[in-house]
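Help wanted!
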Amino acid sequence: MRFGPLLATALIVIGLAGCATRPPASDPEAVAEYDANNDPLEPLNRGLYDVNTAIDTVLLRPAAVVYRAAVPPPVRQGVRNALGNLRAPTILMNDILQGDMDRAGRTAARFLINSTLGIGGLVDVAAWKFGIRGHGEDFGQTLARWGVGEGPYLFLPVLGPSNPRDLLGAGVDVVASPWFWLGQGEVVEMLRWVRTGMTVLDTREGVLDTLDTLYATSLDPYSTLRSAYRQRREAEIRNAGQTAPDAATGTGFGVGVGVTVPPGTTLPAR
Amino acid sequence: MASIRRRTAMLAGLGLALPQPALAQMDATRAVNFIQTTGNALVEALNSTTLNAAQRRERVANILRQAVDMEGTGRFILGRWWRVASPAEQQEYLRLFEETLIRNLAARLGEYQGVRFSLGRSQQRTEEDVLVTTVVERPGTPPINLDWRVADVNGQPRVVDLVAEGTSLRLTQRSEYSAVVQRGGNQVSALLTAMRAQLQQMQARQ
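Answered by r_m:
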C-alpha cells in the first residue's frame, strides 16, 4: 500500500482539475444541456476514458478478438449462458425487491431448470424447451425503482460508463450473491477468478461489434457512449422493450451484452 | 394543452417567431400504416435475391430519403447550434447530415438479410408525434425493439427518430454533435469539418 497516499494525491489533483465549469445563467440553453448531460466531472471522465482506450487497445479488445476467433460460437454461448445462470440468485433477489413476483418466478424456474437439465447453466434449456426467456436485473435498477437518483455520470477504465447508484448497486449485488459466501479453499478461490476473467472476456466480446461501429462512426464516441448508456439504463429500469439477457451486468459495458442493436444506432448496449 | 395553443396563437399574433415550426397532429392509424408500408418496402429490398449488395443499398437509400424528415431531424440534432450557424453553414450541414445518415443506415441495413419485422402492441402518442413500435427479428439473434417516431411534415407522415431498445438515435447524435461543436471552440464549422472528413472516409470504404 505504499502507493496509497500517492494515488490519493493524484486522484485529488485530477479531481480538482476534473470539474467542468457550469455555463453562465445568461445562456439558458447551454445550462439546460449541461444539466441534461449530467456530467459535472466531464474533464476527469474524459481523462479516464483515454486511459480506458489505451488499456482496451493493447489488452481488452485484442483478447476479445482472439476469444471470438479461437472459441467456436456454441462454446461461447455456453459460457455466456453459464455466467447468466450464476447471476440468477442476484436477479431473483432484485425481482423480489422490486415486487415483481411474476419475473421472480421465471428467474427461479430458469435457475432450477438450467442448473440441472442445462448442465450447470451451460445450456439455456428454460428458454429453448420451456419458452421461459431470461431477463437482467440488478440492485442499481432496484435503487432506481425505490427513487434513488443516478448521481453524476462516471466513466471508469475497463468497467465503462456508470454512475454512483449503479456502482453501489453492483457492489451490493456482489456481496449479496450466495457465491460470495459459499465455499472456501484454493479451488473455490480459483473458480472465482475464472468467473471474473470470463465475465470480462465475455463482456468485451459481447460489445465488440457495437464498439467497433461506434468508434468508427461517432465524431465524439465519449458523448455518444454517455448518452446511449443513460438512455439504455432508463429503458432497463422501466423494463421496457425486449428484455436484456441475464448475462448482462448491472453497469459499465456489461449492460450491453447480448442485446443486438439495429444498424444506425450506436449503442454500448449489445 | 389548450393554454399552450392559445399562447402560441398569441405569440404568432405578436409576430414573434417560434423556435420550432408548429407541427400538425399526427393520426396514430396513419402513422402505423406508414411504418407498415415503409417497413415492408425495406424488408423487400433487403431480402431481394435479384439485386446485388450495391443495388440493395441504393434501393434502401431511396426508401429512406422519402421516409425520413431530413431537414426537421437534422435541425433537431444540431439543436441550439442551428441559430449560431450562418445560412451557408446551415445548408452545408443539412447536405452533410443527409448524406451521412443515408450512407450509415443503408450500409448497415444492407447486412440485414433474412430480416423480419412485426408491429408492436403499443403506440404511444404525444402532442406532436406517434411512436410506432416494431419488433425486428433476424436469424440467429435475439429480437429487438425498434420504435419509429412519426410526425406530420407538411401533411405527410415522416420518420423523425429511431429508438432502438430505448436508445433514441436523434438524442444520442445531438449529444455527439454538440460535443464536437463545443470542443471546437463553439464553432459549427468545426463540426462541418469533422463531418466532411467522416464522409470522405465512408466514401473511400464503399
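OP: Thanks! One thing I noticed: The CA atoms of residues 68 and 205 of chain A lie 7 Å apart.
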